[in-house]
Each structure stands twice: as structure tokens, then as C-alpha cells.
Specification:
The complex is a heterodimer. By secondary structure, chain A is mainly alpha-helical. Chain A is built from eleven helices and five strands; from the N terminus they run H-H-E-H-H-H-H-H-H-H-H-E-E-E-E-H. Chain A has two domains: 30 residues, no CATH class; 212 residues, no CATH class. The N and C termini of chain A lie far apart (60 Å). In chain B, strand 5 and strand 6 form a beta hairpin. Chain B is globular. The chains are: A mainly alpha, B alpha+beta.
Amino acid sequence: MKFKSKILSTLVIFIIGAITLLTTSCGGDKSNVDNQLDDSLSTSDEFNKAKQVIYGIPSPIETAMLMKRAGAKYNQDYLNPLSNLPNYTTTKSMALNLGVYSADLSFASMFDQSQASIKYLSATKKLADDLGILNAIDKSIITRMENNINNRDSVMEIISETFMNSNSFLKENDRGEIAAIILTGGWLEGLYIGIQIVKNTSQNKELMERIADQRLSLNTLISLLNEYKSDPNVQSILPDMERLKKVFDKIQTSSTKMEVVEKDGKNIITSTSEIKFTPEVFEELAAVVTEIRSNIIK
Amino acid sequence: MKKIFVTAIIVIVAMTITNVASAQCKNFAKKICKLELLPYVHDGIYNATVLSEGETAELYKTFYAGQEYRVTVCGDENLPPIQFQVLDAERNVLYDNKKHNYAKSWDFKLQSSKQLIISIQVQTSDELTDQILSGCVAVLVGFMNIENTFNQNK
């Protein structure tokens, strides 16, 4: 009887311990409270203490839209071949390439490449399934995609929905590090495609600026990855991102103060920026991005 | 021994409630808050959390030149109003929805790409009560499809 009671007692203590551990492991926000405190003390009174900090990384669909807006042209050669799909068997390679294929899917659909879009959607479904992301992309989504393939608004909506399904599932199941790795793969693929377009087409100032702008997103991405730096997969990705940051830091920028003006009923945040992005820095960036991406997709 | 057992049960129940709240938060963001973004296309990133009155959260994001954005912040209907401010990197206030009757969305476009901070605070309730209200708060970002854009130079 005494023995039984001891087992029960040990079990209860174990459960409490496990729950405490789970609760504290989800409490990454607390460190943010400390990190944000100094910044906010000198500014707003009401917004003096951020409970939670969220790092917003451009999603693959946003990056594809930026490229299209900047005048990019579609070329299937820029995408990660689907024949590489069976190579991805580790959690890290599956997550990174889920991001890569999501970017390729967004790029293909933005340029109305219906067959490629469906194939890349199937590839993202396979990787999401293998990562245990339940119901992110089910058969009904693929059918919806097939039925709406000629309606870009619907296709974008479907891609946005699948991406939200994946990252909400991961965040709510305490697998935020996987969501962060997926975003890293998607962000890098978008950057790679942008660089390939610049290299293979005539001078495109707007696209060059959007590539230079990625230095801002990279800083946010590194902050996001640092939230999960105890994870071995994240640890192995961070040095590449730091390496990229060193190249991006060579781009010289200056800008004027921001102001909001209303024009034609729309709010425009005005501020001019000067970006000095030399061909040498571009070439260095292209070389580093290509090398990192080659290691990811192999 | 009995005390430990009761404590364990209470903790487990509390954890279950938190998980249910979390799942509800996901549905709230997807089914209710996302509609506020229309006709803008959601970027696909899920940013939602459970906040109590007086609590704050901040979203750091780069917004790109030329792209038209809509930022939508919405919370459970049982929560007091949610204030959100759009700040630049030096934390200068560019927009404050408190001055616009706690509007849920703000549409804007940038002349050059910038990192902005969306700072959110659940206001405290005026009613005198022992209970601290809490609920789901979502911050979603949408952008306008290229075909539906407006020309800044018009």
C-alpha cells in the first residue's frame, strides 16, 4: 500500500513537473518583456511594456507579389526542381524546403503557371504531411486549386490559407521553431529568385531596391530565429543568416523622417531613402545566397 | 498527498482551458478577423494570442515600397476596445486607432520600404469587477493584389 502511494506520489510530481516545464517552455515571451522595457521607457507612456513580441517575416506570397510588381518575368529554371523532393527526409530539410517550395508555388501562381502551381502545391502537401502538420493542405484544397486555377485572386487566397494553416498549427502546437525554419526557407528562395531575375534580365532598379530591402527582413528573421536558438536545427541555420547579414550590411542607406500624408483618400507614409548597392556587393550577395540555397535544396 | 493530487488536477484543468482558448483563437483569427482584411489578400502569416485587459503585444515587420497594405487588429467581442499604434523604428507614432474610434483596420502605402512596429494594447474595462477579461487578439496583414492597385503618381 505504501509502495502504491509512493508510485502515485511520484507520478503526480512528474505530471506537475512536466506541466511546469511545458508552461515555462511556452513562455518565451517573458524574455521579450525585459528586452523591450529599455526601448519603451524613453517613449510612449501607455505602450510601456510589450507582453509579446511577434516577428513578421514576409510570406512567400508577399515576396512573389513584390517581384511581380517590380516587373519580374517567370522562368521555371529559377525554381527548385520537384525531382529533389525525395531527398528531403530530415526535419530541417523538410521544413526549409517546405518554405522553398511554398515560394516557388507562389511565384508560379503569380505568373499564372497553372500546371506548375498544382505540382508545387502537391509537393508542399507532401512535406507538410511528413512534418506532421495536420490538415494544412488536404485533398479538398488541391481540388479547389484545380477548379480555380484560372482565377488568380482565388489561387492567392488558397495559397494564403494553406500557409496560415501550417504556421497556425505549428505555433499552437509549440513547434514555433519549425514555423521559423519554413519562413527562412521561403524568404531565402524569394531572395534567390529575385537575384536570378536581376542577373538574367536588363537593369531593373525597382527589383534591385526590393533585394536591398531584404536587409530589413533579414534582421527580423535573425531575431525570430534567436527566439529558438536552443533548437539544434535553428542553431545550424543561424550562421548562414549571420553571414548573409554581413554582406547586406555593406549596402549603404540613408533616409528621411517618416510622415503620413493623405492623397486621393489613401494614407501614404512618405520618406525618401537612398540606397547605395554596388555591383560588387550584389555579386557577393548573389554568390552567398546561391551557395546557401544550393546546400538547402540538394 | 491528497493536496498534491488536487493541485495536479487543477493545473491539468487550467492547461486544458488554455489549449481550448488557443484553438478558439486560431478559429477567431481565421474565420472572423480575416474577413476584415477583404479585399486585401492575407499574407498567410498567423499572428494571434490570448491577451488580458491592459496587456500589450508588438509586431515587427518590414513593409515594402509601392505595396498597398491593410493592417487589421481585432479581438474577442468580450474584450474592451483594442488600441493599436503604428510606429516607426524610433517609435514615433504614425497612426493611432484611438483617435479614430478604435478602428479595426488601417490602410497605407509607403514611399520607401521600412520596418514598422504595430503596437497593440487591450484597454482596461471601466466596469468595476474582480474578473480580469481576457480573449483572443489577432493582428493580420494583407496586401492589395497588383491588378487592384491605385497609382500613387495619379
